[in-house]
Amino acid sequence: MRTTQLYAPTLRETPAEAEVMSHQLLLRAGMIRKAAGGVYTYLPLAWRVLRKIETIIREEMDVAGGQELSMPIIQPAELWHETGRWDIFGEEMFRLKDRHDRSFCLGPTHEEMITSLIRNEVRSYRQLPLLLYQIQNKYRDEIRPRFGLMRGREFIMKDLYSFDKDEAGLDVSYKKMYDAYTNIFTRCGLVFRPVEADGGSIGGGFTHEFTVLADSGESEIVYCSKCDYAANVEKAELKASVQENIAEELPLKLVDTPDMKTIEAVTDFMGMDSTQSIKAVAFQNEKDEVILAFVRGDHDVNDVKLQNAVGAVTLRMADEAAIKAVGGVPGFMSPIGLTKDAKVVVDLSVMEMTNAIGGANQIDKHYCNMNPKRDFTDYLVTDLRLMCEGDPCPHCGAPVKMTRGIEAGQVFKLGTKYSESLKATFLDENGREKPLVMGCYGIGVSRTMAAAIEQNNDEYGIVWPAAIAPYQVVVIPVNAKNTEQFSIAETLYQELQAAKVEVVLDDRKERAGVKFKDADLIGYPIRITVGPKSVEEDSIEIKIRRSGEVFTYGKVDYLENVLSMLRNL
RNA sequence: CGGGGCAUGGCUCAGUUUGGUAGAGCACCUGGCUUGGGACCAGGGGGUCGCAGGUUCGAAUCCUGCUGCUCCGACCA
């Protein structure tokens, strides 16, 4: 490809709307343009990257026994009514009606579609397992699309759905996908971790997220400093510690704490540490029932754990009226002295506390010497808090570390949730009718491209891993007027093409600086510079984008060196 | 959904407070000059100032309504 032909309008300045690095660089490198909030056109360079990622995915899916198909993006409402997700998805689903007033949606995902497809065709265990996948646009009407391709309303997803006759079969399919994903992200040249995660609303149980590590990532993960445990903080389990409390339990005492509604105010006033206080957080579920969560003052409530613990569909912060209705006093809440309407959930670590301070459910008053085991009544104890750096690993007990990342893929054991609601059954070896056991495995393709940039960039632009770079090499003749340089560049260009290298020749009549800036911005892994020395001394300059290293070779041996560099990038 | 902010040429923005008929830099076109890190000089093209009303002799500027974009929040009582 010649730059004069390439449609990649680069920008010198960063458009105001772009906040995160990948968004800025995708715009500046002439790779994407916005069509509407969260909806983008992929220009040629971006499309090449996406196709490369897709190719890697296809190869690994096929090796794992997957078969690719294509399903409708426009999906009839009836299917979604069958699983109840027409309502559950709510505002997040793009809906439309046809001329006959029939309801449809733009598929946010394809569990319904795929399950309805095979429920009529798969009748026997002999036809299983079945692994089908698609790579297509999906649609979610996000409340707040942002971060460019990271959280769009239209995005490219690969989804594979597995159908097995039993749990054992699902385990095999799951393992295949887990391994395939490990291969995919490794081949893409990304630093990532598979982490244990919460199932969320897709329903089902066991799941791993494949998280591309990047400080700008939206998900927070913990990983063990010793063993291979890694989990999303939402999921990370904390076990009851076996510490022995020697402190003697003192009698409960009411103290005045005028206008001290925060942990900090109270503990400062009392000369205590926040670890000695009990923090209350009030929620309401979808039925408007009040749920009061209690954690240690220095801890934070993990609302996913809380949601699971109380079986809530949704949770939101409780309003003041609701708190008062159950006998709570905002700012001074505790499990002591509530009316019975509230569900009280207490974190494990709170139960280990002695002589703690907490609210009294009276205005401007707290209790000292609160001993949960003695003083609390009618409550549920569970693991409720967010894990912090240094907390013990649930597997080996070593302190955990935290980092951030971008969730690029997820493997999920669905079980029979969809096959039951959609009546997708088969006959097993004993002639008994059973629901198919399903799994779903997604990769955000467009998001993976953005994640790759978040993880691989510097002050000059993108630094593509070679496997997914739009082109591997750019050839730049330095002096636009020098026909000898151009002619040498042209020869190198031809030779590289003949050697099956994806190469761009920057044949623009621009000054060297412009070409260098664009090359850095677009992030070609290797830059070949043709300058005066190439004419006079037969030397070819090769610069590695990532390391900045510069090598000089002759016209006869540059090619083999480029090829070997590409293999190692 | 709540609260900010913004909307002026392809991009980044000034001009709005105090109404007087639209500007800069970059980009683009022409010519010259330059050529190893986003040059320079000269000339040129391009904007119903988001949309719809209103006030006024006169509106980018003031008023009303709408739309779009964007940021923060929607967790520690």
Question: What would you note in describing this structure?
Answer:
The protein is α+β, with helices and mostly antiparallel strands. It has 17 helices and 31 strands. A hairpin with a 2-residue loop joins β18 and β19. The longest helix has 21 residues, at 167-187. The radius of gyration is 29 Å and the shape is globular. The mean pLDDT is 90. The chain binds one RNA strand of 77 nucleotides through β14 and α15.
- Helix/strand class: alpha+beta
Q: How would you characterize the largest beta sheet?
A: 9 strands, mixed
Strand content: 25-35%
What is the count of β-strands? 31
Task: Please report the first level of CATH classification, the CATH class of the largest domain.
Answer: Alpha Beta
Examine the secondary-structure arrangement and name the CATH architecture of the largest domain. Answer: 2-Layer Sandwich
Briefly note the CATH topology name of the largest domain. BirA Bifunctional Protein, domain 2
Tally of alpha and pi helices:
17
Considering DSSP H and I runs of 4 or more, what fraction of the residues is helical? Answer: 25-40%
> How far apart are the termini?
21 Å
Q: How many domains would you count in the coordinates? A: 3
At the fourth CATH level, what is the homologous superfamily of the largest domain? Answer: Bira Bifunctional Protein, Domain 2
Rg on CA atoms, Å? 29 Å
What do the pLDDT scores average to? 90
pLDDT < 50 runs, ≥5 residues: none
Q: What overall geometry do the principal axes of the alpha carbons give?
A: globular
EC number: 6.1.1.15
Keywords: Aminoacyl-tRNA synthetase, ATP-binding, Cytoplasm, Ligase, Nucleotide-binding, Protein biosynthesis
Subcellular location: Cytoplasm
Main location: cytoplasm
